[in-house]
Write a structure and sequence with these properties.
The complex is a heterodimer of chains A (758) and B (176). Chain A has 758 residues and is α+β, with helices and mostly antiparallel strands. Chain A is 29% helix and 23% strand. With 176 residues, chain B is of the alpha+beta class. In chain B, helix 2 crosses helix 5. Classes of the chains: A alpha+beta (758), B alpha+beta (176).
């Protein structure tokens, strides 16, 4: 029974295949677009579907981690959901990362382990139902087996840490029951999952399952992987977005010892972003990384810019201004309540205006992109790469080779950060193009690893797009916000504009939508051939920086306490409709709660008189509620010291509070570091940033010593956390900086702007 | 049954001296290795591609990120900035060699696990080696000492790394 389950998996699992008496539970193909139906799909769990859960006769419990883990902690938290329902002894659990699960379904891929996608923090919400049910099903069948063995009704048995105990104290372990349980028929109805009061693992802190492998250097990331006599390819890519290769001289490169071949690459026509190479390139294929790097240095290449010039951010600002002011501009009305525009035009209306500009941001993943492939075009393709969307990796490999599902293997090791960059597979497409290229005989069928270098990583990305927000509000006699107009401009996805807007950016119901009765939100397309992508928390990062800064500006204009202005705006606890991830409703009471929590913790009553600067922001993202309070000191000369960072989150039931804290802490730093220092800029059509010296990710010294994370207890169904802390840290920082320096930052990166305006 | 042949020691006049070996030797994690290739090869690629010790990570190639930090004769160094030729008879320690010879964890590794100072984990070998260097110089490091390490973490594990260094320092002091 277990042979087919394990043969295509990792080596130590092959050893397990021979062990007798294992209980294996899987969840069959759950298409992302369908609601999960675990029980029906579990019908064939015993014969062939993937191994989410396997209990061996010796008591070890193997749990598969289906979603890619690039530092979000899902390899720990998802298996905990199964272990919880199973009442498993966590110390006996071995977590097994699952590669992409795919088989041939009449010429179409049939996905064995569901969506296997990591992004927008929805791994946990998706797993909350089906993974717990898999555990509950296994538990109920083990209980049935125990009832038969002990001669006691199942209802009289209790389970404790992987053992079933009879009323008279007799005890039998899961391992002893596994074989008998595996032969029982599957029950007709889904066993009930636990109520929160019975959780023993969910809600309890636990360390990362990969920690030991990480600290001993044994964890093999994709960039560390090799497959026998692996060749290494390092690429020189066209520095101009939309540009082409003009001249190439590879003579000196081919003289470098260890260089094997030089191959030219073109992005394949008609493929979407991330489904082929990002840019034309010249690849140096060598015996090892250093030879490839030395060979690349010796390339003599010249590149031609594309037909469309690359606008700078200030060019885009001018475009936005024309769109905002022009009557004929192509506007997309995102939301329109009441008559906000009419109120603005009303004579004598008190209005407040501000424009916020946010730059391009690179992903700069810690582990540079890499992809290891071994391709025999007639028989097999084996791929190792970090990915947030391994199905897309499969699609590329299948398209380029024409191989069947059973001939393609996609291994997805733990990734060194992702942040949206690994939703794209341009590096995989590069590796495949190189693998499929004509080669002299001795090089054919050798494994190839494409390695990205840091300069190429910063220069070739689908960046977080720049945004320009022009905000206007009207205020009544009683200091209430009566109208809110936000005009936002950002690059269009499909070029040239205005074919199709980047819909994910238009958060229709983001606050203060629904809180201000006259509310208008407009979107305008900007023209640039620069590719844009998802970046941790897009579009909420840009939106929250504008709206939460603007609320503070309104409070300041009213000489009011920014906390009071927010609380008044949020009003009585109620449910508001919310379209998009995290909908269909948002609870203003939960938002008020996280806001009050951070205000209390930081000592908000000092806000007006403290020598330091205090700032607040709150937001709703992907089903989670978040607020930040930041305290800064003005060091003079444009220097800002972030003294304290407090973040309160309400994600519903925390699955692993320790992992949640890590995401909130890390997200806070990522958002602060990005807001303070980072931007990608274009000059003469090229990215100017080359390495960490000019794209300075903050180090420990530049960050507060701690992030005080407050986790609101809740037993609501959990939301994801990887994006949660991103939107509010930057506006809370800017609001704090205003209090400390009287400088209002409306343009990021912040430190440069503080220095300019001080 | 056939008796095994007894090897006759040849007369000293017939023993030829070994030819002088090419290349140079260095010690990595207590083992001696001979390198006969290009001496300009950066230590990082020697470790990763030749010895297949992948604990030292590639991150920037310019000594900016600290992901490839190793110990050379006990002191922290960026493996991307050192060439193998400069390391004749020097002792290099990578994260794979940080554990004790019996396989038990170094107090820093244990502290990292205890503080769960792992997010994506990619920079952590570099953080660990830099911390190992720090604790040999400063058994009771201050926050400022820890700040001076400067190894980047894209995930923002800094508070936990800080706590882990202090935890390990205390454990090492307590153990004498």
């Amino acid at each position: 029974m277990t042979d087919t389950l394990w043969l295509s998996r990792r080596r130590f699992l092959k050893v397990m295949a021979g062990t007798a008496g294992a209980l294996v539970v899987g969840i069959g193909s759950v298409r992302a677009e369908e609601p999960p139906m675990p029980l029906g799909l579990l019908g064939d769990a015993w014969s062939q579907v993937g191994p989410y859960l396997r209990i061996d006769a010796d008591g070890r419990i193997f749990i598969g981690a289906r979603d890619p883990d690039n530092g979000e902690g899902t390899a720990t938290s998802l298996p905990r959901l199964i272990a919880e329902e199973l009442d498993a002894d966590w110390t006996r659990v071995v977590v097994v990362p699952l590669g992409l699960g795919v088989e041939d379904g009449n010429g179409e891929p049939r996905w064995l382990y569901g969506r296997q996608r990591s992004g927008q923090g929805d791994s946990i919400p998706t797993a909350w139902t089906d993974m717990r049910q898999a555990g509950a099903l296994a538990r109920s069948m083990l209980l049935q087996a125990a009832a038969q063995r002990l001669g006691v009704a199942a209802g009289q048995l209790r389970v404790e840490n992987g053992s079933v105990i009879a009323p008279d104290g007799r005890r039998v372990t899961y391992g002893q029951l596994a074989e008998a349980a595996s032969k029982l028929p599957v029950p007709d109805t889904a066993p009930r999952v636990k109520t929160p009061d019975r959780f023993h693992l969910i809600g309890q802190p636990v360390g990362d399952v990969d920690a030991h492998a990480v600290v001993t250097g044994k964890l093999i990331y994709a960039i560390d992987a090799a497959d026998g006599d692996t060749m290494v390819a390092v690429l020189s890519r066209c520095p101009y977005p939309g540009g082409t290769l003009d001249t190439v001289d590879t003579g000196d490169t081919l003289k470098v010892k260890g260089v094997l071949q030089v191959i030219q690459l073109q992005p394949e026509a008609g493929q979407g972003l991330g489904m082929t190479a990002l840019a034309p390139a010249v690849a140096v294929l060598a015996e090892d990384t250093w030879s490839a790097l030395e060979g690349r240095k010796k390339l003599k290449l010249s590149w031609k810019p594309g037909a469309t010039p690359i606008p700078t951010l200030s060019d885009l600002e001018k475009q936005a201004q024309v769109s905002f002011d022009g009557p004929d501009a192509q506007v997309t009305v995102v939301r329109d309540d009441g008559d906000a525009v009419g109120l603005l035009k009303k004579k004598g209306a008190r209005r407040i205006d501000a424009t916020y500009v946010q730059p391009w941001i690179a992903h700069a993943v810690a582990e540079p992109l890499s992809c290891l492939v071994r391709v025999d075009p007639d028989t097999s393709a084996v791929v190792t790469t970090a990915s947030q969307a391994p199905r897309d990796a499969y699609t590329i490999v299948q398209r380029m080779t024409g191989l069947r599902a059973s001939q393609i293997r996609i291994d997805v090791p733990r990734g060194g950060g992702a942040f949206g960059r690994r939703l794209l597979h341009d590096h995989l497409a590069e590796a495949m193009i190189i693998a499929m290229a004509e080669k002299p005989e001795p090089l054919r069928n050798r494994a190839i690893k494409v390695m990205w270098t840091r300069d190429e990583d910063l220069a070739h990305d689908a960046w977080r797009a720049p945004t320009i927000h022009r905000m206007s509000a009207t205020i009544d006699q009683r200091k209430g916000i009566t109208g809110w107009v936000q005009n936002m401009a950002s690059p269009n996805r499909d070029l040239p504009a205005p074919a199709r807007p980047w819909m994910s950016e238009l958060v229709q119901d983001a606050m203060p939508a629904g809180l201000v009765s006259n509310f208008r939100s407009n979107w305008y397309a900007l023209d640039t051939p620069v590719p844009r992508g998802e970046w941790r928390g897009t579009p909420h990062m840009s939106h929250a920086f504008a709206s939460e800064s603007f609320i503070d500006e309104i409070a300041n204009a009213l000489k009011a306490n920014p906390l009071d202005v927010r609380l008044r705006l949020l009003g009585e606890p109620r449910q508001l409709p919310y379209r998009g991830p995290g909908g269909p409703t948002v609870d203003t009471g939960r938002l008020v709660n996280v806001l009050r929590q951070v205000a209390d913790r930081i000592g908000w009553q000092r806000w007006l008189h403290s020598e330091t600067g205090l700032g607040l922001a709150c937001y709703y993202v992907n089903g989670g509620y978040v607020a930040h309070a930041i305290e800064v000191a003005n060091k003079g000369n444009g220097q800002i010291d972030v003294i304290r960072a407090v973040c309160a989150v309400d994600v519903g039931q925390p699955v692993n509070p320790l992992g949640l804290e890590a995401q909130v802490m890390g997200g806070t730093f990522d958002a602060l570091s990005t807001a303070m220092n980072l931007s990608i800029t274009f000059r003469d059509g090229q990215v100017q940033q080359k390495n960490f010296r000019d794209y300075p990710i903050a180090n420990a010294a530049q960050m507060p010593n701690d992030v005080e994370v407050i986790i609101v207890p809740s037993d609501a169904a959990p939301a994801g956390a990887s994006v949660l802390a991103m939107p509010t840290a930057a506006p809370a920082l800017a609001n704090a900086v205003f209090r400390a320096t009287a400088v209002r930052v409306r343009r990021l990166p912040l430190l440069r702007e503080v220095a300019r305006l001080s | 049954m056939q008796q095994p042949q007894v090897l006759q020691t040849p007369p000293t006049s017939e023993i030829k001296p070994e030819p002088i070996r090419e290349g140079m030797e260095l010690v990595v994690n207590g083992k001696r290795f001979r390198h006969t290739g290009d001496e300009a090869l950066p230590l990082l690629w020697y470790l990763r591609d030749v010895l297949r010790l992948t604990g030292a990570k590639y991150g920037c190639d310019e000594g900016e990120c600290g992901f490839c930090t190793v110990l050379v004769d006990g002191k922290a160094a960026q493996a991307c900035r050192l060439t193998v030729g400069k390391l004749a008879n020097r002792h290099v320690t990578t994260v794979e060699g940080l554990s004790n010879p019996d396989g038990s964890l170094h107090p820093l590794q244990q502290a990292w696990i205890d503080e769960d100072a792992v997010l994506c984990g990619y920079c952590q070998p570099g953080q660990l080696m830099a911390a190992a260097d720090l604790l040999t110089r400063k058994p009771d490091p201050s926050d400022a000492d820890i700040d001076r390490i400067g190894t980047l973490c894209r995930c923002g594990s800094y508070p936990r790394v800080r706590k882990a260094i202090k935890r390990a320092a205390k454990a090492m002091r307590d153990a004498g």
